[in-house]
Recover the amino acids of this structure.
């Protein structure tokens, strides 16, 4: 049995249950569809921010490049030793067919023209290459968290799959993540909406100059429980396509050039 790529805990974000669960799901699907190991591959992290995911993506390539529109987090990424460049995901400063793996992780929902992003990632990916995409799920779950993180939209799995295919991608996997916690997460959002109560934008976890996605903190005991639930869910995700969740996760692949 092939050993799974380990999740490395090196920065604070990795310790939050939501990010930890997402990372495990990403690694599991990349292991399955792209294969573990560097193998001389180039990896692009679109919307890299301060390089929060690049130590995980470094499992899959020798050359790891990040692209980030916002200039604020880039010095943090550079201080961490990562090659993150400022640029627009709808007009990337890279040649065609350059990257073996592209990561588009909770990024495209921030951009008005999502099809331009899917087209550009397709252009810069090598034939036979792989892209992994994560986005928030279901517009009816729109909440204060979407507002403070400047989201344009949330997706369903069929909608994301259709848009990827329109851009030329083959989509062997598109399903949901955060399946087990979905009733709790959806319930909290709907209850807050009904009560007219949302988290305070001035609360300690919110910072307008923050270099990462804002997530509400959880007390240590709850964080530990939710992280263990995430580990169970990844075991399920490896076997089945989960039918609902608070996030959508997809694998897109660029067909190999058969003329070569």
């Amino acid at each position: 049995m092939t050993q799974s790529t380990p999740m490395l805990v090196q920065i604070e974000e990795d310790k939050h249950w939501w990010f930890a669960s997402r990372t495990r799901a990403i690694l599991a699907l990349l292991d399955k569809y792209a294969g573990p190991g560097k193998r001389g591959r180039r990896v692009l992290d679109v919307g890299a921010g301060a390089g929060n995911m690049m130590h995980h993506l470094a499992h899959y390539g020798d050359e790891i490049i990040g692209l980030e529109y916002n200039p604020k987090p880039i010095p943090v990424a550079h201080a961490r030793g990562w090659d993150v460049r400022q640029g627009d995901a709808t007009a990337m400063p890279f040649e065609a067919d350059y990257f073996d793996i592209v990561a588009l992780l909770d990024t495209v929902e921030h951009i008005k023209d999502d099809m331009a992003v899917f087209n550009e990632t397709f252009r810069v990916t090598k034939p036979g290459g792989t892209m992994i995409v994560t986005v928030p799920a279901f517009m009816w779950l729109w909440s204060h968290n979407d507002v403070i993180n400047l989201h344009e939209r949330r997706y369903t799995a069929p909608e994301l799959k259709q848009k990827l295919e329109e851009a030329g991608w083959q989509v062997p996997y598109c399903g949901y993540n955060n399946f087990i916690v979905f009733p709790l997460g959806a319930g909290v959002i709907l209850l807050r909406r009904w009560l007219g109560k949302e988290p305070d934008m001035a609360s300690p976890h919110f910072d307008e100059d923050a270099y990462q996605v804002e997530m509400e903190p959880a007390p240590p005991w709850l964080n530990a429980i939710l992280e263990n639930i995430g580990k169970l869910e990844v075991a399920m995700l490896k076997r089945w396509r989960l039918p609902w969740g608070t996030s959508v996760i997809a694998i897109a692949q660029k067909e190999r050039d058969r003329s070569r």
Notes: Helices lie at 17-33, 54-57, 74-79, 114-124, 144-148, 157-166, 182-195, 220-237. The first strand starts at residue 42 and ends at 46. Residues 205 and 216 are 6 Å apart (CA to CA). The two ends are 33 Å apart (CA to CA).
